[in-house]
Amino acid sequence: MATTAHLFEEPFDADEYIERLAWRTPGGGSKGGAEAFDPKRLLEEFQNHIEELKQLDEKIQRKVEKLEHQCHREAKEFAHKVQDLQRSNQVAFQHFQELDEHISYVATKVCHLGDQLEGVNTPRQRAVEAQRLMTYFNEFLDGDLRSDVFNNPEKIKEAADIIQKLHLIAQELPFDRFADVKAKIASKYHDLERQLIQEFTAAQRRGEIGRISTEIKSLMCYSAHVKEKLDETRHSDVEQYLKNLYDLYTRTTGLATKLTEFNLGSDKHTFLSKLIKSIFSSYLESYIDMEREYLRTRGAMILQRYYDSKNHQKRPVGAGSIQDLKERIRQRTNLPLGPSIDTHGETFLSPELVVNLLQETRHAFERCHRLSDPSDLPKNAFSIFLLLVDHLCVEHIDYALEIGLSAIPSPDAKNANLYFLDVVQQANSIFHLFDKQFNDQLMPLISSSPKLAECLHKKKEVIEQMEVKLDTGIDRTLNCMVGQMKHILATEQKKTDFRPEDENNVMIQYTTACSKVCAYVSRQVEHVRKSMDGKNVDTVLTELGIRFHRLIHEHLQQYSYSSMGGMLAICDVAEYRRCAKDFRVPLVLQLFDTLHALCNLLVVAPDNLKQVCSGEQLTNLDRNLLHAFVQLRVDYRSARLGRHFS
């Protein structure tokens, strides 16, 4: 039977294959067959077939090796191609980044150039407009209207725009010196108003004459109505003035929008825009100054009202006095420079105050959006934002952090009340509200202007300043917590706890000191969880857990241990480890697991010391540390335990 690879294709049955080989071999069948059974011949056939199988195997193996070699070669070529593509992609991405940066740079330059051009062009246009109005005013003063605009019926709209502005200017002039010219301007004003109404009525006879005529008359009468409404509160009630200005301007622009629905000519938008500008221009020019002054006064009043309600006189921060110097040194170190300030648990942070400040700022942003010239909008919004930062972040949150830092007791204080975490909790909540207003109301006003970078930088600066003080306060609070634990251990832990007089009569599961420390730690862990959010919880608990472990580790090394005392120390550490589970921080639990394993060295039989030290939890520790724990045993010298570390 010829030996080929296809004979071994699946499904392959070895018994069937041997049977077929024997049956095909002459003399290889059963003895009862036509030909007598010949074992030698069958053996020879098997041997020959085995040789053929070996040759076939070698042939197939060579083919496999060839294919494997080809596969490796192609894999290397493919890997080289992938690397080349990755390098090409990296170069392309770098070019893209450079292009993006260049585009951003050019865009910034273009915006800056536009602002500069606007800054140059606007004053020039105002100067030209002022000169033009002075020329027309002189004509009224002389009593001779020579300009074509006042005598040409086709230029009635231009004349209306001029007389509207002159009418506003005339109302500001003293009556005794300019009575005659004021009367002439008023007469021309009413004359042009009548002409416009008549002309408009004639042109719209086929439309909704009544509605159009009423709205036009209403709009034209706004020179007197707006002035009367705004001037009565401009100096007496700034808050009401700003509300009235916002309301009147909004209603006026709404009326103008309705008028554009009718056929007022091809330049209707320009005409209405000029008309509205002539009515409100004098008020809009001074708007942002009055807005800032109002917010400055209102914010200071809200702050002062809150501190008055607390019977608290604000302490000057950074005034340069000796007391301030001592306080700043005490905040940044653990030096005992006198007692801390007792705030009686008051955080000096008020949700109601914050809501009031944010509410005032929200209204200011709304007014700013409506009343600011588009070119001035980002600048004006930024100035409002700076006032919010000053009142909310500096005068309230930052001040509360300073007071909170001053109120943190020294680490060696007994029965210290730690309120700084409450300050942290409230400061975080307030800053979330501040951040929400930043994103919801300020960002839409500045997102497409260069002021965006300034706002983001200012916000980042505020956050960083707050984080420094928060980190300092949290660090000193953790020191106080550790100091309180140390005080409990110092007063409750006795040397006889770990060297009991009666080794056979120890009935407690763990020492009183351990019980009180664990109870204190559990309360502080819960306090941290309530005061922090997000990853800050794990960060603070990790640091507290590390300091907690370090304290217990150093504390245990102050005592010597009998056999039963060592068992009690193990029970204490087991309880500390159970307390450490509340941290939910793997590193802290691992530290106490290792400490528990170290305490086993206090009770293990001398002959088993090497085996225990080689255990999974202790094998990577410094031999000196292991030796130090073994030296705490009372039988260290008598049992010659030091030889295990020589």
TrEMBL record:
Residues 158-212, 224-644 form the Exocyst complex component Sec10-like alpha-helical bundle domain. One of its GO terms (cellular component) is exocyst. Pfam families: Sec10_HB (PF07393), Sec10_N (PF20667). The keyword Transport applies. Residues 39-148 form the Exocyst complex component Sec10 N-terminal domain. Residues 43-77 form a coiled coil. GO terms for biological process: exocytosis; Golgi to plasma membrane transport. Keywords: Coiled coil, Exocytosis, Transport. It comes from the Eukaryota. Belongs to the SEC10 family. This is Exocyst complex component 5. It comes from Oreochromis niloticus. The lineage of its organism: Eukaryota, Metazoa, Chordata, Craniata, Vertebrata. The gene is EXOC5.
